[in-house]
């Protein structure tokens, strides 16, 4: 044996590799079996996280490698856009670990934190399985392949690539679709913040402090010490920690407390005004410094949460599968198929990532083979965040979970009524326990706080308090988690409004050229106000419509996000066929098909289901008919409210139909282009002609 | 110079041949610089030192931008363009 090992130096290495990968597979299978089959004893969240890590390692090592080598045929002798166009600003060849960090910070936002929390109503198992299967075969594949496509096209954006590969009409359709999803995302994120801060002086105060803090940082980095991000961020983090600490005294103060206590509709108006002003301020003043601050916190919190879960090893209190898989759940209505697959978008597969994978990331990749680590690996990491969010929601007492996430229309607005309804569902909870949880985290009430952020914050606070600081710090950790989410949601609102403005200008420019000029002040103001009005409408209505809110808008967000993923994967399929790699087209075609089935079924059901709890039109008709008959249906309190419910649901229904139509148009173009490319015996993808690096593989980039 | 540095794994001192105290210090300094540069790039912050090295390598004979000018331009380009840059 030793003789052969000596003659073949690869052999011991390969044997070790076998041992390691067999070990990881066995551990993963054991952990998965544990969480899937165990019904009697409580399961620790650490097993959930362990199973996920094993799945990620195996899929990265085998499926990721297969895609890199066989499907995409990454070629390290080809120069990457970063090398060709190295300008020291956008295009910079960068170490792959650094690109990974940069890419991860760009893709991971509030999405993977909210969706899994909402999906927890069906139990931890359906969500976990979809997150794991979805990321391995759809999400990570999409990010990786789109990154590859953009890298082979000088770092072009998704919209440009669709135009290049599928024609101008498809490009225009993709642009409208992207704008639609952007507006729905901003509305959903805005509502998450509003729901978290409503009637919460402590939270509102800390989030309000971030605005002047970021501005001081901005002035410091521009005028006092140019570019000293580290110093400015250290100042920012310290001020924020102090703000969280002093927030409790502000909340108790006789004058300051009421001054920071706002109702949800008032906060909705505030965030709309904020969005309009912030997105027109110079970027160095507010957007850039707060983005640095939130990136610091984002990375820190995710690491701390992972450590916390392993230190505390909390038990999952939510069942593996609850009775709400039948579609009668209070958090979102609709059966497991298709609604689980659109509720958890980010973390399993997120179309929005296609915009990042064709944005700054491809301009930093140093070697083509790095794309696997950055594209496929980066998405696995986001999925890991989603698994932790799901764990944090499932370690909560299910009674508390439902008290926080069910709309007032279902469980009422007093702890007594809520405890009664939820106990009837089978999760016994007392009004005292609900009140105690609110007191523990320093809030007046935890009822009706749908949106994921507060639930996750309570879960995180319980885990973190057990790991660091004990019960006394629970309220601190709760507000820390709220601030952490609000921080990057406000950044997303600001940056997203700007991005939406450019898209609107792009569209308006086709109708009336002066409106498309991005340097014209009037055009900028008009486009910004249009964008803010569009998402602001949904945020405001979500707070005053008795049946509206995150529970209504999130399915729309899921449908639009998965729709964008569908468009990106359709593009990827077209490109693979144009490269004459038809036999590997299933790699992108299979997830595309699954996403289209889910999106179209969900879209159809949301629009046309005759069940008013699911179908937008059915609910609108029900309220509109009752209103014309002069009867007031609970939870609406007047005919005017009834008409508002009807109107909002007509709008949501129409948007859903629009999204479905967009997907169908894109599928048509894909089919047409793919058939054409299939018949063509020569590769026809519009890649930038390859340039071979001098000195081949090992040569230093020129 | 910059490109070679960036290409290396973040913490590698392959060039070290004899382990003298000076070499160890130089190596640690090098690693610290790379970690700092990497972190700045992860969070998307301007890095004037890296820019100067890039400028000297790619555009010899021309005057580089002043630090203030570079930082302003970097931030404007990174956050002011049409790309959202951040996901949901």
Give a description of the structure.
The complex is a heterodimer of chains A (702) and B (88). Chain A has helices spanning 2-7, 10-37, 45-71, 81-84, 96-107, 111-119, 124-151, 158-166, 168-197, 201-224, 229-252, 256-259, 264-278, 287-312, 336-343, 353-357, 370-394, 398-405, 408-411, 415-425, 431-440, 453-467, 474-511, 521-544, 550-578, 586-608, 616-629, 639-679. Chain A is globular, with a radius of gyration of 25 Å. Chain A is mainly α. With 88 residues, chain B is mainly alpha-helical. Helices cover 60% and strands 0% of the residues of chain B. Chain B has helices at 2-7, 21-42, 48-58, 67-80. Chain B is flat and about 50 Å long. Residues 1-11 of chain B have low confidence and may be disordered. At the A-B interface, helix 5, helix 9, helix 14, helix 16 and helix 23 of A face helix 1, helix 2, helix 3 and helix 4 of B.
Instruction: Describe the global form of chain A.
Output: globular
Order of helices and strands of chain B: HHHH
Using only C-alpha atoms, the radius of gyration of chain B works out to 16 Å
The average pLDDT of chain B is: 76
What topology emerges from the helices and strands here?
The complex is a heterodimer of chains A (about 700) and B (about 90).
Chain A: H1 2-7, H2 10-37, H3 45-71, H4 81-84, H5 96-107, H6 111-119, H7 124-151, H8 158-166, H9 168-197, H10 201-224, H11 229-252, H12 256-259, H13 264-278, H14 287-312, H15 336-343, H16 353-357, H17 370-394, H18 398-405, H19 408-411, H20 415-425, H21 431-440, H22 453-467, H23 474-511, H24 521-544, H25 550-578, H26 586-608, H27 616-629, H28 639-679
Chain B: H1 2-7, H2 21-42, H3 48-58, H4 67-80
């Amino acid at each position: 044996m030793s003789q052969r090992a000596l003659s073949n130096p690869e052999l011991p290495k390969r044997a070790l590799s076998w041992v390691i990968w067999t070990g990881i597979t066995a551990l993963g299978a054991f952990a998965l079996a544990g969480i899937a089959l165990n019904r009697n004893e409580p399961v620790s969240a650490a097993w959930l996280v362990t199973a996920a890590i094993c799945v990620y390692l195996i899929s990265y090592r085998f499926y990721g490698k297969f895609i890199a080598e066989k499907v995409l045929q990454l070629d390290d002798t080809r120069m990457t856009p970063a090398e060709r166009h190295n300008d020291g600003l956008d295009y910079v060849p960068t170490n792959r670990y650094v690109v990974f960090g940069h890419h991860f910070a760009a893709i991971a936002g509030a999405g993977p934190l909210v969706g899994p929390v909402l999906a927890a109503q069906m139990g931890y198992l359906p969500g976990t399985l979809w997150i794991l299967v979805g990321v391995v075969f759809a999400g990570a594949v999409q990010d990786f392949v789109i990154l590859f496509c953009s890298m082979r096209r000088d770092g072009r954006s998704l919209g440009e690539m669709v135009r290049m590969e599928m024609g101008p009409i498809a490009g225009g359709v993709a642009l409208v679709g992207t704008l639609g999803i952007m507006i729905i995302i901003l509305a959903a994120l805005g509502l998450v913040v509003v729901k978290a801060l409503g009637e919460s002086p402590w939270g509102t105060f800390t989030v309000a402090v971030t605005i002047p803090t970021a501005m001081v940082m901005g002035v410091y980095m521009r005028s006092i010490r140019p570019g000293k991000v580290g110093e400015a961020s250290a100042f920012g983090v310290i001020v924020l920690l102090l703000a969280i600490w002093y927030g409790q005294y502000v909340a108790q103060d006789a004058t300051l407390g009421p001054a920071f206590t706002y109702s949800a509709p008032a906060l909705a108006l505030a965030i709309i005004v904020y969005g309009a002003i912030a997105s027109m301020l110079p970027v160095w003043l507010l957007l850039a410094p707060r983005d640095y601050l939130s990136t610091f916190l984002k990375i820190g919190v995710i690491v701390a949460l992972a450590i916390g879960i392993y230190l505390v090893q909390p038990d999952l209190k939510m069942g593996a599968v609850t009775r709400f898989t039948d579609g009668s759940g209070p958090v979102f209505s609709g059966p497991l198929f298709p609604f689980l697959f659109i509720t958890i978008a980010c973390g399993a597969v997120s179309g929005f990532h296609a915009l990042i994978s064709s944005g700054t990331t491809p301009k930093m990749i140093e070697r083509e083979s790095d794309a696997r680590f950055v594209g496929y690996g980066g998405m696995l990491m986001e999925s890991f965040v989603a698994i932790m969010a799901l764990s944090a929601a499932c370690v909560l007492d299910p009674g508390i979970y439902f008290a926080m996430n069910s709309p007032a229309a279902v469980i009422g607005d007093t702890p007594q009524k809520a405890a009664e309804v939820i106990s009837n569902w089978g999760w016994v909870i007392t009004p005292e326990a609900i009140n105690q949880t609110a007191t523990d985290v320093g809030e007046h009430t935890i009822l009706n706080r749908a949106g994921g952020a507060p639930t996750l914050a309570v879960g995180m606070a319980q885990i973190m308090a057990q790991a660091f600081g004990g019960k006394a710090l629970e309220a601190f950790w709760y507000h820390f988690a709220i601030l952490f989410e609000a921080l990057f949601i406000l950044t997303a609102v600001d940056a997203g409004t700007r991005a939406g403005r450019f898209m609107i200008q792009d569209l308006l420019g086709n109708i009336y050229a002066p409106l498309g000029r991005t340097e014209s002040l009037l055009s900028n103001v008009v486009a910004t106000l249009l964008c803010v009005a569009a998402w602001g409408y949904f945020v405001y209505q979500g707070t005053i419509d008795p049946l509206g809110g995150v529970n209504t808008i999130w399915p729309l967000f899921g449908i639009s996000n998965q729709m964008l993923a569908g468009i990106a994967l359709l593009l990827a399929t077209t490109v693979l066929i144009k490269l004459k790699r038809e036999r590997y087209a299933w790699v992108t075609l299979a997830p595309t098909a699954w996403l289209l089935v889910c999106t179209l079924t969900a879209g159809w059901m949301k629009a046309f289901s005759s069940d008013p709890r699911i179908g937008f039109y059915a609910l609108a008709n029900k309220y509109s008919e009752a209103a014309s008959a002069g009867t007031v249906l609970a939870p609406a309190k007047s005919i005017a409210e009834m008409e508002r419910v009807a109107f909002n649901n007509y709008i949501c229904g129409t948007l859903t139909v629009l999204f479905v139509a967009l997907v169908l148009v894109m599928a048509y173009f894909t089919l047409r282009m793919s058939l054409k490319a299939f018949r063509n015996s020569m590769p026809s993808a519009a890649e930038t002609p390859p340039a071979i690096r001098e000195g081949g593989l090992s040569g230093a980039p020129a | 110079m910059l490109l070679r540095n960036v290409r290396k794994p973040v913490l590698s001192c392959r060039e070290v041949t004899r382990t003298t105290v000076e070499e160890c210090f130089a190596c640690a300094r090098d690693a610290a610089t790379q970690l700092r540069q990497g972190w700045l790039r992860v969070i998307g912050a301007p890095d004037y030192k890296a820019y100067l090295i890039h400028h000297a390598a790619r555009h010899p004979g021309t005057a580089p931008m002043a630090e203030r000018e570079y930082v302003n331009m970097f931030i404007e380009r990174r956050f002011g363009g049409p790309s959202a840059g951040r996901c949901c």
